[in-house]
């Protein structure tokens, strides 16, 4: 009996202990799950901090202060107007106007001597070849005779002036001698000019062909002992230091390109910028093509004869909006620009058109009054992607 009573008391004590332990665990667990946070406590997911994240993480917005914009080198620009288009041209390097000469024979005759060879540097007025010409000898003799006649007529006129004062010669005869003197002087001047045009031959008819420009002798077309006719080419001379670019262009482009326009040129020595110095139709070109002449903004050109290619921007006549090329970025497969507002830069989808030089047409998406990020706009794209990645976690 006593044994049963003892066992019953031990069982009741164990049961009570189990109940107390279970209640304690439930109380402890319930306090952690359902216990309210203190009124003043804000944890990592609290409402205040979450509100700040929404302000900073607004979709399509990159928040930057003015000091941050200046420090990052982002340039804010206004929209431009006036579309345009690029035209690719082919051309070559040529000697500049005034720096080249095709020296021809002024009279026909036999080549007595050739003074230069291809590649010879020459000064302006330096001899290239000597020609012996019977025609030139005749010109020189005629000029000498005309000069002598003019001198004789002048002396007759002076003598008649003296005789008129003495009453020996009538004034009418004096006037006639004066007229003959003037005519003889005119004939002598014409003969002298003809001799000068022929190269000022000597009495033996030798004519020295000289170069009118300084430079390097190119092709020499005559040889000693050969015969040349008046107008035949003797040699080419050009100054390699004075060259320019010559491009062939469609005729319609000539009306759209003005002097001082820029051409981006690519040649054997690399790429460089050039400035247009002249545009005109060239009847020598097949199909009536126009020619565009340009000079580099700095540096030297490749040797004359080198082929080059160029890209020229023809200004449009419309009122299309344009932005710098750097302003247009690609976000999620769309062309966008970053438009400024009071909070920072807001992503704005646009429809981009043609590229003209360093500008891009904007056909849709902007009104024209906005200011957008130009240089270093890619930094805003990177910052936008960074913010989206953080919110994705």
Automatic annotation (TrEMBL):
Is the Metal-binding keyword given for this protein? Answer: no
List residues of the CzcB-like C-terminal circularly permuted SH3-like domain. 321-381
Domain spans labelled CusB-like barrel-sandwich hybrid: 101-237
An annotated GO BP: plasma membrane copper ion transport
Q: Name one GO cellular component term.
A: membrane
Source organism of this protein record: Luteimonas aestuarii
- Which protein is depicted? Efflux RND transporter periplasmic adaptor subunit
Instruction: List, alphabetically, the SUPFAM superfamilies matched.
Output: HlyD-like secretion proteins (SSF111369)
Q: Where is this region: Disordered?
A: 32-58
- Cross-referenced InterPro entries: BSH_CusB, CzcB_C, MFP_Cation_Efflux, RND_pump_MFP
Alphabetically sorted, this entry's keywords are: Transport
Q: What does the sequence similarity comment in the record state about its family? A: Belongs to the membrane fusion protein (MFP) (TC 8.A.1) family.
């Amino acid at each position: 009996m006593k044994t049963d009573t003892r066992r019953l008391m031990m069982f009741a004590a164990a049961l009570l202990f189990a109940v107390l332990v279970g209640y304690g665990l439930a109380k402890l667990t319930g306090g952690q799950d359902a216990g309210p946070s203190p009124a003043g406590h804000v944890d990592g997911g609290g409402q205040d901090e979450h509100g700040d994240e929404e302000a900073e993480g607004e979709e399509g917005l990159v928040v930057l202060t003015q000091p941050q914009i200046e420090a990052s080198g982002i340039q804010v620009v206004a929209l431009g107007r006036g579309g345009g288009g690029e035209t690719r041209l082919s051309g070559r390097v040529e000697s500049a106007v005034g720096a080249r000469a095709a020296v021809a024979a002024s009279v026909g005759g036999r080549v007595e001597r050739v003074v230069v060879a291809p590649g010879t540097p020459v000064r302006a007025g330096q001899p290239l070849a000597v020609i012996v010409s019977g025609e030139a000898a005749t010109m020189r003799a005629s000029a000498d005779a005309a000069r002598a006649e003019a001198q004789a007529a002048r002396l007759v006129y002076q003598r008649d002036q003296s005789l008129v004062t003495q009453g020996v010669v009538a004034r009418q005869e004096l006037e006639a001698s004066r007229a003959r003197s003037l005519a003889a002087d005119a004939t002598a001047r014409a003969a002298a000019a003809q001799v000068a045009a022929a190269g000022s031959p000597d009495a033996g008819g030798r004519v020295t062909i000289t170069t009118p420009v300084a430079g390097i002798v190119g092709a020499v077309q005559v040889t000693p002992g050969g015969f040349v006719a008046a107008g035949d080419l003797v040699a080419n001379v050009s100054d390699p230091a004075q060259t320019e670019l010559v491009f062939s262009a469609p005729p319609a482009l000539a009306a759209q390109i003005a002097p001082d326009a820029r051409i981006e040129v690519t040649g054997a020595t690399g790429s460089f910028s050039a400035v247009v110095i002249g545009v005109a139709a060239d009847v020598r070109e097949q199909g009536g093509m126009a020619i565009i002449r340009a000079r580099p903004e700095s540096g030297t050109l490749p040797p004359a004869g080198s082929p080059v290619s160029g890209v020229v921007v023809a200004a449009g006549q419309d009122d299309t909006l344009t932005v710098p090329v750097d302003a247009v970025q690609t976000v999620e497969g769309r062309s966008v620009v970053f438009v400024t507002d009071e909070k920072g830069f807001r992503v704005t989808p646009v429809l981009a058109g043609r590229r003209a030089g360093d500008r891009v047409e904007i056909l849709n998406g902007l009104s024209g009054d906005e200011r957008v990020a130009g240089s270093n706009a890619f930094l805003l794209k990177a910052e936008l992607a960074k913010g989206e990645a953080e919110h994705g976690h």
